[in-house]
Design brief:
40% helix, alpha/beta, seven-stranded parallel beta sheet, binds NADP nicotinamide-adenine-dinucleotide phosphate, 247 residues
Length: 247
């Protein structure tokens, strides 16, 4: 059975991806900080759950040491945004956390698991969850968009550096997805989070999970380099059609 590792599987896109990969026949190894949620998901999908803080090198090492010796799919999903502040109001702690989780965390995980990525048979696959923020910028988004632009650069570099190895590399770049993302971004302010999706139909986590599973289940000679998926109501990162508003 193929082994898939999903980071940030305790909610949103990570949890939906774990469920979808399980249906597609993968054995799941799940990581995140909220272990109670992970354990209940692991029971549901029949996989394993271990604590993981991608911001902490030691935690990543311990997590990796608990995984099977061969991994076929790594989904680097853990991350998110903190705040929506203009550049000149940068909150250093928030920016550091964003870079730690979205950027360094992704590289730490990949570096640690690389020796276990299967290089025989059909090979293996690393899927990085980027964002429309990997391709565009918007006011107040600099900390987060800089992180996801970095994910874009790192993913492209992995693709080039691993050319010739049987390891596929994919970046999935979603637009607005209704998860806990905005609740986290606005420090638990549920009213502000709700407004992000007001009057429009966002993607749901399962839409992104679909894209991950599709990329992961192509024939082994096919590399899906990038998937950009947005709600029909969103044309650009900050260009959203809302009911009652002219386009
Ligand atoms: P979410 O519901 O808030 O989920 C974020 C996940 O990341 C949680 O499981 C969280 O788990 C985990 N995480 C955060 N920091 C972590 C850390 N230091 N170590 C381990 N796990 C960590 O948001 P989501 O929308 O599913 O986000 C998943 C990914 O999609 C993120 O990379 C995000 O940037 C990206 N994305 C989201 C959207 C969107 O609109 N929602 C759009 C484009 C891209 P714990 O808190 O339990 O650790």
């Amino acid at each position: 059975m193929k082994v898939a590792v999903v980071t940030g599987a305790s909610s949103g896109i990570g949890a939906a991806t774990a469920r979808a990969l399980s249906k597609a026949g993968f054995h799941l190894c799940l990581g995140a900080r909220r272990v109670d949620r992970l354990e209940s998901l692991a029971r549901e999908v029949g996989g394993s759950a271990f604590p993981l803080d991608v911001c902490d090198t030691e935690s990543v090492r311990t997590f990796a040491s608990r995984l099977p010796s061969r991994i076929h799919l790594l989904v680097n999903n853990a991350g998110g945004a903190l705040g929506l502040d203009p550049v000149i109001e940068m909150d250093e702690a928030k920016w550091l956390t964003m870079f730690q989780s979205n950027v360094l965390g992704l590289v730490r995980m990949t570096r640690e698991l690389f020796p276990r990525l299967d290089q025989e048979g059909e090979g293996s696959h690393v899927v990085n969850i980027g964002s429309v923020a990997a391709l565009e910028t918007y006011p107040g988004g600099a900390g987060y968009t800089a992180c996801k632009h970095a994910v874009r650069a790192i993913t492209e570099t992995m693709r080039i550096e691993w050319l010739g190895l049987p390891i596929r590399v994919t970046e999935i770049d979603p637009g607005l997805v209704e998860t806990e993302f905005s609740l986290v971004r606005f420090a638990g302010d549920s009213e502000r989070a709700r407004k992000v999706y007001e009057g429009m139909t966002p993607l749901v986590a399962e839409d992104v999970a679909d894209a991950v599973v599709w990329a992961a289940t192509r024939p082994p000679h096919v590399n899906i380099d990038q998937i950009l998926l947005k709600p029909r109501d969103q044309a650009r990162a900050d260009k959203v059609h809302r009911k009652g508003n002219s386009p």
